[in-house]
Automatic annotation (TrEMBL):
Belongs to the pseudouridine synthase RluA family. Its EC number is 5.4.99.-. Responsible for synthesis of pseudouridine from uracil. The lineage of its organism: Bacteria, Bacillati, Bacillota, Bacilli, Lactobacillales. GO terms for molecular function: catalytic activity, acting on RNA; pseudouridine synthase activity; RNA binding. Gene3D superfamilies: Pseudouridine synthase. InterPro entries: PsdUridine_synth_cat_dom_sf, PsdUridine_synth_RluA-like_CS, PsdUridine_synth_RluC/D, PsdUridine_synth_RsuA/RluA, RluA_PseudoU_synthase. This is Pseudouridine synthase. GO terms for biological process: enzyme-directed rRNA pseudouridine synthesis.
Length: 304
């Protein structure tokens, strides 16, 4: 059983609080009400009840609601760096070279396996490509998975990246908005205007450059597979070390999940989590460790 307890932020009808404020799926809300597992200051009340500000709202989930979620075998062979943690979620600094999740039930050695051992259980919210490092959001309990998925879909959770790419841009900032679909020659890859193409939009800003490379800050406005890698390759500036969309033989893909701006479930306060880039980024920009990247982003016209 999972129990969520939070105080009501305002005078609201209970159904409005659960659906519009806390963004719980309808199936959760009606299931909780049917089983009388919605309590106000310890007592059951129907969904049309007016909840006064400061009332303690308790939600009791039996576990039947989450049978469709995937569970992962625990693997304690590696511990991952946790950048932020609360009751409902963690943000980790994912190392490059580790898969986000297993593709087969008995597979080990992925982020979700490690966190299942480290936290007791872990639930997938979004993924990073195996070659990509950086901030990755993972749920600690199944209740918040659909809430976080909805926040991501609505653009309330911002994912920001740092990349080192080939060449120089003619403009220091802008958008890529070409649709992305399946590569007709290889369904494991993506292509601009490929098969079953979907809209895709990415923001970029050049933070620094040297003779051969540019240091670029990127924000996803949609979340297509390989979106940043495809958009940058199509712009003529493939990411250094990209084994799928680039030509060079660099050891690492220089794409890093730099920041996540989170809207925390239930309290809906915000947290901005920064994941320090790997040391190998300094091979191309030696002064990177001396830069205050968060301050630099705002000074250079940081975009939410």
């Amino acid at each position: 059983m999972w129990i969520i307890q939070e105080k009501s932020p305002a005078d609201l009808e209970l159904k409005v609080l659960l659906k519009d404020q806390w963004r719980l799926p309808k199936r959760y809300i009606y299931g909780l009400s049917k089983q009388q597992n919605v309590l106000l200051d310890g007592h059951y009340h129907h969904l049309k009840t007016l909840v006064r500000k400061g009332t303690m709202v308790s939600l009791k989930f039996t576990g039947q609601e989450f049978r469709s979620l995937q569970y992962y075998l625990p693997d304690s062979s590696q511990r991952l760096e946790i950048l932020f943690e609360n009751r409902d979620l963690v943000v980790i600094n994912k190392p490059a070279g580790i898969k986000s999740h297993p593709n087969q039930a008995q597979e080990l050695g992925t982020v979700m396996n490690y966190l299942s051992a480290q936290l007791g259980q872990a639930y997938m919210v979004h993924r990073l490509d195996q070659e990509t490092s950086g901030a990755m959001l993972v749920a600690k309990n199944p209740v918040v998975v659909p809430v976080l998925n909805q926040l991501i879909a609505q653009g309330a959770i911002k994912r920001r990246y740092l990349a080192i790419v080939h060449g120089h841009f003619t403009q220091t900032q802008g958008f890529f908005d070409q649709p992305i679909g399946l590569n007709p020659q290889n369904p494991n890859l993506r292509a601009i205007n490929g098969l079953q193409a979907q809209s895709a939009r990415s923001y970029y800003r050049v933070l620094d450059q040297n003779t051969a490379y540019s240091l670029v800050y990127l924000t996803l406005e949609t979340g297509r597979t390989h979106q940043l890698r495809v958009h940058l390759q199509a712009s003529g500036h493939p990411i250094v070390g990209d084994p799928l969309y680039g030509q060079d033989q660099a050891k690492h893909l220089l794409l890093h999940g730099l920041q996540q701006k989170l809207v925390l479930p239930f309290s809906f306060t915000t947290e901005t989590i920064v994941a320090p880039p790997p040391a190998y980024f300094t091979t191309y920009f030696p002064n990177l460790n001396q830069l205050n990247l968060t301050e630099l982003l705002y000074q250079s016209g940081h975009k939410d």
